[in-house]
Each structure stands twice: as structure tokens, then as C-alpha cells.
Amino acid sequence: MPPLTGLHRREALRLLGAGIALAAGGCSRPDEEILPYIRQPEQLLPGVPARYATALPLSGWARGVHAIAVDGRPIKIEGNPLHPGSRGATDVFLEAAVLDLYDPDRSRAVGERVAGIASWEAFGKAYARPLSEARARGGAGFRLLTGRITSPTLLRQIAALRAAMPEAAWHVHEPLDDAHARAGAALAFGRPVRILPRLEQAEIVVCLEDDPLGPGPDQIRLSAALMERRRDPSRFGRLSVAEGLPTLTGIKADARRAMAPATTGALLVRLANGFGAGLADPALPEAERRFADDILADLRAHHGRAVVLAGEALEPAFHALAHWLNGRLAAPVDGIAPP
């Protein structure tokens, strides 16, 4: 075996340079033609992020945000500090909303159950026959499933579709729905009303199966309002929660009681009777009765600065009773027309 010879400095540099050139060549992008804009889009500079104000809906409610895009591709969503729905912050839904605008893993072709990847032309041909048959029947058997829609353009298009096919059915579903709350408001006010509590003005907040700090279109506003009140040491404040399952609001509660929704409804009846509702006195266990009496004392001592919130686990009649109780309390709440 011949003896090993030392590597001279010049040879080492030559080998290092060859390795760098090989690596750079292997990692370079493929050749492609780059064409300049004939008409430069307004406020678009290559490689420079563009920030613009827009709104993103959740359960039919729009929340103002700032969208950041690079070369026309959205990369980040931030809250709009001038919009009351986001107040400069985001939640998990807004953070994930960028994937609704652009997702590199999303399918870019039409899928077919048997053949797999298809084309839009194939989809149009396969869809034309059943659509024409549905039109011939006046829309009978045609089903349209959407979320809650507030877009005037899309609502106008759906109205035109239903006018052309009057027998078609339109189903609206939202994963974060408030059907009981809407029905309860209709019972209490005679029309659909969306209640917006002003938690920053409430010193006593009672949540009965309600989670204002949890997922929902008003999560950011309510969370910020509650924390603003708690940061003021000169103000009294108590958050009381009765719930069947742990929630974010229950974790932050000053007083929390775990109970079934049926028991929570009975607790609400006892609170309402304390303000003259005149309902049949419910049978409550001793511990729950003491819990209700403590809440009742807080409500009586803070007229105009207390609010009672009912959640979706309670029936519409209990929501209506909570609205009646808030009226007796002069609770800091606003009512708006729902979408």
C-alpha cells in the first residue's frame, strides 16, 4: 500500500470549488421564460408584501382583517385594529383562513369516483343530464347545501336558481350554529334578533351552558372585553359559570358548577323567579340551590351591570327566559338583525 500523501492547499481549494459548483448546478431552478408586465398592476411590486383591508366571514358574520400578499399570493392574515370584530387580533379560524385562499396541497383537478382525476369538461358533461332532468321537474329532487350566506351577489344567484326551479330545496348548515339562540330570541322579541353583550361594562357575568370565550364569530371581541374589565383593579367583577362540559369560559370562571343542562335550566328558572317571573319553583339539589342563591345576590346588587348568557345546550324557551331576565336587569346588551 503506497503511503498517503498530503493534500496541497491549491488542490483542496480546487476540489472545494468543484463541489460548490456541482451543488449549485443541482439545486438551481429549471430554465423558464420570464416576461415583464405590459401593464403593471396597481400597488404590486415583485417581492414586496402588499397589505390590504378586507373581511372574512365565520358562521355568516364578517370580521375585519388585514391580508398580506406577496406577488398576488396571500401568505398571512392579521386582525384589523379598527374593526370591532377582530380588534387587531386573530383566532384559530382567522389563522387558518389563509388556506381557504391558497393551499398548495389542495386538489387542482376535478375528482371522479371511478376514474379518479377528471376535467372540468367531463364534470360539465356528467352534470348536464341530471340538471336538465331536474329543471324539467321544476327542481324536484334538486338539493343545494350551503353555509350561512351574507354575500348579496351569491344570494341573488341562489334566488335566480330557485325562481327557475321552484321545487328545489335549499339547506343551510353551520358547524358553529345558534339555532336555539335564534329561536329563543324569536320567542322573546317576536322576530329574529342577535344579542351582543357588552362584557366590558358588565361586572357580573353569568354563563349558563354558554362559552363566550370559546370558538365563534364573536370570540375575539368578547375575550378582549372581559379581559379589559378584569385588568381594572378598581372595579368589582365576577364570572359565574354553570356547564356540563369544561369550556374556556369555565376555566376563567370565579365560580363554576358542573351540572347537566336540565339542572342548568332549573337554575335559570330559580334566578328568574327571584325577579318576579312567577314560574313553578324547580327542584334543585342543595349545592346547586346555594350556587343559584349566590348568583341571585350578585345580580340584585349590580342592576344595570350584570348579564345572563344562555348557551346552545338549553332549549329555546330558556333562551327567551334569559332575555326576559336581562330586561329586568337592564343588562348591557345590544340587539341586531341576524344575517
TrEMBL record:
Domain of life: Bacteria
Name of the protein: 4Fe-4S ferredoxin
SUPFAM superfamilies, alphabetized: Formate dehydrogenase/DMSO reductase, domains 1-3 (SSF53706)
Organism of origin: Methylobacterium tarhaniae
